[in-house]
Amino acid sequence: xxxxxIDSLNYVSFHNPDTEFINVEYGKKIYATVHPGxxxxxxxxxxxxxxxxxxxxxxxxxxxxxxxxLYREELRKRIFVGxxxxxxxxxxxxEQILQETIDRLNVELQAARQAAAxxxxxxxxxxxxxxxxxxxxxxxxxxxAPETNGEPxxxxxxxxxxxSLKMDLSVKDTMEKLDAMNVAQLVSEFNYExxxxxxxxxxxxxxxPEELAAFKRDNPDNGTPTVL
Length: 228
Known about the structure:
alpha+beta
């Protein structure tokens, strides 16, 4: 292969007026393909080389001799259509060329890895949480809906501690310890039991002494208690 100065090249407009494409080859390497009716900018030395082959090709298509100088000159005017420019390439040091090569190869390697990498597994869908809890069946004979808020208030727990467990909540240290606990901890720690609800449909004798005392304490003017 002949050598040429890559640092400074003259480019020309190369047109293909034939009905068949032409490959722009040099040293067994195809640099471009110019299709029928297409115009491309090519270095002058490549255009001259490809132009000879294109003129031979067009002479054969027109049943003309490839040695017909007048016809070849006419074809040359149709192939080289002007627009000549000179392109001066930036001269690079060996270090610059090496660095650009390393960067380019690593970009290509990264792109190849990303293309070959399997897609990350999709996270499983979490089951939808119903807006309301379903009804709860008890002993296959009764259906009840759960309470919207089954946790007692802190005051209810403190009332239970005072009245049922007889704790003295006026002691500062005791209250500080109780206030430091949340309601759930208080319920668990002291085995909190919610107060009984009474009506006047059940005889007083059906209540335990503790239930009767609780009722009289909380309902001093409600008459005879009964359990609901």
